[in-house]
Design brief:
By secondary structure, the protein is of the alpha+beta class. It has two helices and ten strands, in the order αβαβββββββββ. 18% of the residues lie in helices and 56% in strands.
Length: 139
């Protein structure tokens, strides 16, 4: 029982920390998101090794929407999309062993036309970083 209470408290604190970090972000418009619209492959490294994710960012009814999938994770809708400096910030949540886990994906333009990517799980409890490659249209 105490273990469940402690685990719940930790999840609540991590969610609050992630929310506080996201406060610097502002709502994204389709024009703001234009460089990020499309299908992406995220090639990331984390403490437990590599991971590949498929990310889709598009505009539906004048609203920027997205979806992410990878590994054992089925496609998850992106619930919040915002911008922070040059980055597009995409937030979603998924269920892991019966517990909700918040995740924040950041896409940041880099030198030579490249894009850096990061997924921050549970407010920094597990972070994966690497690159994002936009798929060619029509593929």
């Amino acid at each position: 029982m105490l273990r469940n209470v402690l685990a719940s408290t930790v999840l609540i604190l991590l969610t609050a920390i992630a929310g506080a970090a996201a406060q610097g972000a502002t709502t994204v418009t389709p024009a703001d998101a234009e460089p990020f619209i499309g299908d992406w492959t995220l090639d990331l490294q984390g403490p437990n090794g590599p991971g590949t994710f498929a990310l889709s960012v598009k505009v539906e009814k004048d609203k920027v929407v997205g979806e992410i999938a990878g590994g054992e994770q089925t496609a998850q809708p992106i619930t919040t999309i915002s911008k922070s400096d040059k980055s597009l910030v995409l937030e979603y949540s998924f269920n892991y062993e019966g517990n909700p886990v918040d995740a924040v994906v950041s896409l940041t333009p880099a030198d030579e036309g490249k894009t850096n990517a990061q997924i921050d799980f549970a407010g920094g409890a597990y972070v994966m970083t690497g690159t994002a490659t936009k798929k060619a249209k029509g593929k």
